Amino acid sequence: MKLDRRHFIAAGGAVAAAGALAFYTFGNRQLTGMQLPGLSPANAQSADLSSLHEAPQLGERVLGEADAPVTVIEYASATCGHCANFHNDAFPAIKEDYIDTGKVRFVFREFPLDELALAAFMLARCAPENRYFPIIDVLFEEQRTWTQNAREELLKIARMAGFTPESFEECLQNEDVAKGILEIRSTAAEQYGVKSTPTFFVNRKVITGNQPDELRQAIEDAAG
Q1: In angstroms, how far is the first alpha carbon of the chain from the final one?
Q2: What is the mean pLDDT of residues 161-185?
Q3: Where is pLDDT greater, at 211 or 20?
Q4: Which of the listed residues 137, 153, 172, 201 has the most CB atoms within 10 Å of its CB?
């Protein structure tokens, strides 16, 4: 998504992340791309979508009007190349055509595939809500850069959002934020059958992979 990075940088101000016991103490070891413990691919027997549109305990991050006739939920990983391709290449036009016009309420939910993605999403969640999507924007735009030198590059991105080195460290040790993101992922895998990223739900129709034409058609069909 091509949000205004100048507005993002100008927002300024340090983010005060609540201190907590370390859940994943990224500050004391090198970030890697290893699979998160306990997060093997889902093998849900059947998807129960009855609670799909209920907000997770950590809260939703949403673009668009609350009363839009179509809700699109995306599950994505910050380290997923297909997710980056979708957000960098296809999403700006979809946003312009459907979200900005009041036709779609777009919900972004975190589905980290590895420790790097979890760390990146934690930073987005620790920031003020109005800076969440600009951070997601930068994470996808600069995915190839920050995934190669995660700690240094994530700190650069965090500074753009107003973090200090201290609040950066506090965020990456915030147990509540980490658990909240992992709960979103676990619910998606165990209840909704999400097995890969990106996965989209258009109302309740599922679309897997970076397929913008199919996503557009599903939106048109749902809008009637």
Answers
A1: 26
A2: 95
A3: 211
A4: 172
| Neighbour count for residue 179 (Cβ, 10 Å) | 15
Say which amino acid occupies 32.
T
Question: What's the distance, CA 132 to chain centroid?
Answer: 9
Give the predicted TM-score (pTM) of the model. Answer: 0.84
Please write the tens of the pLDDT for every residue from 3-58.
Answer: 343 333 333 322 222 222 233 444 444 444 444 555 444 443 468 899 999 999 99
pLDDT, tens digit (0-9, with 9 covering 90-100), for 137-158: 999 999 999 999 999 999 999 9
The CA angle 169-56-87, to the nearest 5 degrees, is 70
Q: Evaluate whether 175 touches 23 at the Cβ level (below 8 Å).
A: yes
Question: Which residue, 116, 77, 47, 106, is CA-closest to 197?
Answer: 77
Report the alpha-carbon distance of residue 11 to residue 23 in Å, rounded. Answer: 29
Q: What backbone phi and psi angles, to 5 degrees, belong to 20?
A: -155, 165
Q: Which fold has domain 57-223?
A: Glutaredoxin (3.40.30)
